[in-house]
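[job 4471] stage=fold_predict status=RUNNING
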Amino acid sequence: MNWISLDLQFFAGEKTERATPKKRQDARKKGQVAKSQDINTAVGLLAIFLYLMFASSYLKEHIVNLFRFPFQKYMLMDLTENNIQVISLDILKELALFLGPILLVAMVAGILSNYMQVGFLFSAEAIQFKLEKINPISGFKRIFSMRSIVELLKSILKISFVGFVTFTVLWSKKEEILVLSHKSIGAIMATLGNLTVQMGLFASGALLFLALLDFLYQKYDFEKNIRMSKQDIKDEYKNSEGDPLIKSKIKQRQREMAMRRMMQEVPKADVVITNPTHYAIALKYDEKKLEAPFVVAKGVDFMAQKIKLIAKENDVMTVENRPLARALYSQVEIGDAIPEEFFKAVAEILAYVYKTKNIM
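[job 4471] inference complete, writing structure tokens
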């Protein structure tokens, strides 16, 4: 029996179940999401090289101006404090116009690639200082963990694959490269620029392909890490829904309160229809509330006896009608008007009650 108990505890503690929505939400609050940093890098590089390809004339104009001004304009100026300030501002302006769009494209690509993976997410807990992050023992374990080995293999694969793609592009352009020595400086720069952009685009595409595979792996690894055991799910249910024992006590207390409120309404009733021993239905007619008589209290067995006792103490008439009592108890809830099919029977009883009390 002890072995069986241990086996059950082992299987109960084994993380074989998919994470619940609450566990996923808690992990997201901590900044733990399925995300591949390689996608951010690949999308950023691809966006930059696409910008370089389509904005080449714009970039050429500003880079030429950056080299032209020192020879055409600044060399003829006197070396004064004001002139140095003007020169510095002009150079900074040209650099901003040259580098600013590139940095802006990289920033937008990074934001979009991150948003496509995890949506909008801000977690202060992920950047909190923790002593365990600088613990050498924990760091040693991270370095030689299975995850580190996987990351090493991924890096080798990325370098090899991207290097092969880049080499292939270079090899396909070997004829153009071999004749560069016979071209002018401008033609050489144009050829090298085109070659650089082509290698960048193909390398970025190759890296993006590997990044998509890495994202699938990161998603698998994330799902594996947040798995829960059956006991974890039970504990989460208890914490979120409350302990069953406490819930039962709360429901019992609610029933007791509802019962007290119901008993407080019995003295206000016009009549109590009984079985006579097992059922008791207290009815009241108030045309300001409802157009038909409605049930203010009902009970069976002990509760029925209690209703009749309170009715007797408060001079509320009790009328015996077995089929009507059973039907009203099963079909009408407290606070509801009686169905139309019982109008005639209840009206005769109320007429009798009013006549007996000399109300009519």
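[job 4471] summary: Confidence is low (pLDDT under 50) at residues 1-12.
[job 4471] exit 0
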